């Protein structure tokens, strides 16, 4: 029997020889045992290897899980740190960002109304402190009322300081709303120092000097700037600035006269009542008991002060050197007051008549021109009547001249408010967009015609469109008598659709006899 023998491979450091017999049915037992032993060893080695691989795999999975958990933990930590940094950055930004609070617009009504409120205690202090200090009965008889008004005015003064920290101002055209900037700007200003002095509680000096010395509150007079600011803004807002200026000037003069009257009475008291003819009469004069009454004291002093400061009338001559000096100072103040009155009133009257003087100069120039050119009396009379109509109806102002200093945007807004209602009455513009109407409004020019004037005649080349704002307009025949139709406010003519229709009765247009006639035109150049 043929046998094939092969050497076995080396399994784990042991070299085993085995014989494979193809055709050996009766293999020796030793050989079988050798083969089984070799297979068992292979299985054990394979199982050991699988266990090692399994352990390695478990270790790798464990390491992967630990690594994943560690990475997850690091990511969470990074996310928390990032969130904390973002929160800190937001807090820092919010801290550094200018804080916007409720502020008062200095150009608004709220600020103007507050100026009126603060003006009341300022006026009270400027008139009553000096009066209470010089006229003792006034202080004694109404002491409770004075204390009430004093402390109310003090509270308003304190509130005014808070209002100043909330009053914005314009910077490069923008209203500043930063609380810190507003507060720092006010605190660093000179006005803040005056305001602080004005609220110093000097009333505690009453405990030392007594209640007969209201002049210890003289620091309250430092708020006069608020009163002057109110008057300035009122002059700007009012429609009658000249009248307001006159009233304001009179008020200042009365305050000066009031203070001078108080000084006169106090000066007379220091010299002695009735010591001579110049000072205030004696209070205990049986022939004139009225001079001891509080009202007579003030009225007599006010009368003397008015005579002295206005240099009108005569007063008793001084007797003492101090009286002469007081009188000289009063005369000097009176001269300044008189010059101020005359100068301001002359300026105000000149301003009030400036428009009339300019209009009259224009009429005079037209008259001279017509006389030089030999214009007929009839035409000259019509021209003068036209000027009279302009002046009597308040239409003598040249809109271009009045509005030339305004920017285009404000001019447009004024034109829209003045002419938009008239333009909306025109049917052909009823469905137009707002932008087109604004463009049309800017092209309108006011024109005024006298009664009987022809605006256009049949056969004229139509280059302009007219819109009637006030008055009536008649469409007449060639004879000038027959009327086809009378046009009123909101009517229009001169548009292409009418002028180009053949056979239309677009005849002569003439102003009808109506007290008010005004056309808005030309509107647009027409292609005639």
Automatic annotation (TrEMBL):
Ranges of biased composition (kind: Basic and acidic residues): 43-91
Domain of life: Eukaryota
The Cyclic nucleotide-binding domain, residue ranges: 428-512
Organism from which the protein derives: Takifugu bimaculatus
Keywords, alphabetical: Ion channel, Ion transport, Ligand-gated ion channel, Membrane, Transmembrane, Transmembrane helix, Transport
Annotated GO MF terms: cGMP binding; intracellularly cAMP-activated cation channel activity; intracellularly cGMP-activated cation channel activity; protein-containing complex binding; voltage-gated potassium channel activity
Pfam family for this entry, one: cNMP_binding
Coiled-coil ranges from the UniProt annotation: none
Main localization category: membrane
Reaction(s) catalysed (UniProt annotation): K(+)(in) = K(+)(out)
Protein name from the UniProt record: Cyclic nucleotide-binding domain-containing protein
Renumbered residue ranges of the record's region Disordered: 34-91
Membrane topology: Multi-pass membrane protein
Localisation per UniProt entry: Membrane
Any one GO CC term of the record: intracellular cyclic nucleotide activated cation channel complex
Listed transmembrane segments: 110-131, 143-163, 249-267, 324-346
